[in-house]
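Progress narrative, Year 2. Work on Periplasmic oligopeptide-binding protein from Lentilactobacillus parakefiri advanced from sequence curation to structure prediction during this period.
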Amino acid sequence: MNHYLRKLLLLAAGILSVGTLAGCSTQTKSKDNGKLVRTANLSANYSIVTLDVSKAQGFDNAGNLYDSLLYMNKKHKPVPALASNYHVSNDGKTYTFTIRKNAKFSNGDPITAESFVYSWQRTLNPKTKSTHAYLFDGVKNAEKVNFGKLPLSALGVEAPSKRTFVVHLDRPIAYFTKLMTYQAFSPQDKKIVDKYGASYGQAANKAVFSGPYVIKKWAPQSNTWTFKKNQNYWDKKHVKMNTIHMNHVIDPQTSLSLYQTHKLDFTILIGDQVTHYKNSTDLYRGPYSYMNYLVYNQKIKNPVLRKAFNNVNIRKAISLTIDRGQIANTLLKGESLKPTGFVTKYLAYDPTHNKDFASKQFGGVGVAYDSKLAKDYWNKGLKQVGQKNLTFNLMVANSDNVKKVSEFIKSSAEKQLPGLTINLQTVPQEVQYARGVAGDFEAYITGRGADIADPTAFLQPMMSKNSMNYGSWHNAKFDQLISQSIYTNNANPSIRWNKMLAAEKILMQDQGATPLFQNYNLYLKRPYLHGITHNTTGSQWNYKYMYIKK
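Result:
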């Protein structure tokens, strides 16, 4: 999913993200029918910036507003959602989905095969500038359509009938059904998009939804909004909650205080809070496949910085000054994991020995801490770029953990590398993301959550032409390996696996991105709050089956 998300998601202009939830619940009698009405009050760490599926940067909470063709169940297996069933051709290159007869948008308009054709074409339209366009790579002609080399009609999707949606692939994609659970592939109502034009998705009443909930009382950058049960949802009988009031609580101490006074039922723990509550029976562990990392703008106009940021020795030097063990164990006090490379732990396992990709990937200078070696690279790099010192701005989001880490990096790097000055620029998350996409930064702490349980979820965004490669790092061999991992060698999983390992090694050796820490969140949860689905990829929280039983 990010964007300094999720947090990136966490995370950000074009982000749909609510990384943490918390809540207090009430059950009251309806005056109309005497039935119990279930209402919850949840807190969120991130605000919502757009409801536009094509322009959203991440989908932490969008799993509650939008359904896709398939759905990731509690066992993390793709199962039918808006598609009641599907068929795969013998060559693995054609998927035929049957859309449910009772599938509707929240305004009552029918969801048809054409709703998917339109949505996918809109996302890949170059004018949309979707950061999720790369996820469609592998769909026939997707890349050429996205780069304006072919018309939208050339995209490999069709609707031969109202309920039949057909997807044609360039080559078999091993994880295609997992992709189809992600909200970037959700349908859109063309009538509504046309009606609101540029303001589509910029207010609660200027969008329609295909998921279990709709949103009310929301506007961009607002700190409160409400989820209401979608009365036109195809599976509404399984949605227990009628109303979920959301409140963007920025201060973690405020969230904890609300939990302690029984005004919240579920809240994230930050810093010293983790130590205090580590033995609590209310403790809830929520690992997430989200990597926070540092990138440099290698296409920046400033000639001095451009030359410096394109120097691999300078990038290596700064990376080697960062003690990631101290970040994970001391600074963030158990809220994070020390990275072993660029791909998160617990994401994907090799097809032969079931070994975690993260345990086999190359870390090297990308995760090591070596002050002496850092100085050697630094002196070599400065000499190569003809400078005696270097000053740059590091842009970070105004979240508690990221600010702590950025201050730590500044202090550590400046102490170890003579002549280095790092100025911290703290900005709202949505501003940070917008500037990141526009290339309006010098250096940037960002993050990424995995859309699917596959190493390419982290590696593909670092390809040269990918819209999420904010630093514009380029390596032709890396691009080739990832392209082959996505489009070829899928018949031999071991070959594909080894190519991804080789690509990750190139990324770390060249320091195209510098991993900092993996999110590993701890929460306090009331025992009467049930049915919340926590995912390690894609949409982190799903409230479809949520209920309260005291």
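Residues 375 and 497 are 35 Å apart (CA to CA). The longest strand covers residues 283-296.
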